[in-house]
Amino acid sequence: MRIVSYNVNGIKARLPRLIEYLTEEQPDVVCLQELKASDDTFPEADIRAAGYGAIWHGQKGFNGVAVLARGSDPIERQRGLAGEPEDEHSRYLEAEVDGVVIASIYLPNGNPLPGPKFDYKLRWIDRLRGHAAELLAEERAVVLAGDYNVIPNDDDVYSVRAMQSDALMQPESRAGYRALLAQGWTDSLRTRFPKGGVWTFWDYQAGAWQRDAGFRIDHLLLSPIAADRFADAGVDKSHRGREKASDHAPTWVRLR
């Protein structure tokens, strides 16, 4: 089973690239983030025509997550995280596909900091960790896939100095991510590339793509039972270089 995390940065603008990716790569499951589309404008017909069933949790102009499954409809388990009833952001969607529990996650960016956006980011990580503990208690194959907006290590970024004041690399952001891993989750891309130096995001500004000035913020975390099935992980970097592509590359894990 090949499971992909793909921040499309606007599904309307990126629909040709998404359909192209589904057609060429034919992954089994794709977790989308940053749809920037309301529920009623999600392009379900186009995705079904490409051979994928879908569930989605949209939000007009911002956020939004979806789970696509090749040849079947994902079974929805949960949308949103508990712990903050007033939070109306569409950032979490959980489904079951072929016996595997898969979540599409769009963790808050947190900039500018200090301030309410950074505080919200840290609270959101805490809420995710609380739910992740419940998932581990189920003792099933679980994949938490998404744009975490956290650069976990210094070797996950092209320049520590360039990003040192960004919310993605603050000690509190990294501590939240490490606390999640400490529950027993496996960072699949880190497992495959233990020395780092693998990027999943390149900004549109300052020629970042051309300079390969990127960093790793898209992660697929595996529960112990899923980690026992780990076969490979990688980044489909070439898709970032295509015309009108997202600033993220599809990032994937393959389970036996």
TrEMBL record:
InterPro entries: AP_endonuc_1, AP_endonuclease_F1_BS, Endo/exonu/phosph_ase_sf, Endo/exonuclease/phosphatase, ExoIII-like
Cofactor(s) essential for the protein: Mg(2+)
Highest rank taxon of the organism: Bacteria
Pfam families named in the record: Exo_endo_phos (PF03372)
Keywords: Hydrolase, Magnesium, Metal-binding
Ranges where the Endonuclease/exonuclease/phosphatase domain occurs: 4-248
NCBIfam families to which the protein is assigned, alphabetical: exoDNase_III (TIGR00195), xth (TIGR00633)
Stated family: Belongs to the DNA repair enzymes AP/ExoA family.
Protein name per the record: Exodeoxyribonuclease III
Organism name: Sphingomonas hankookensis
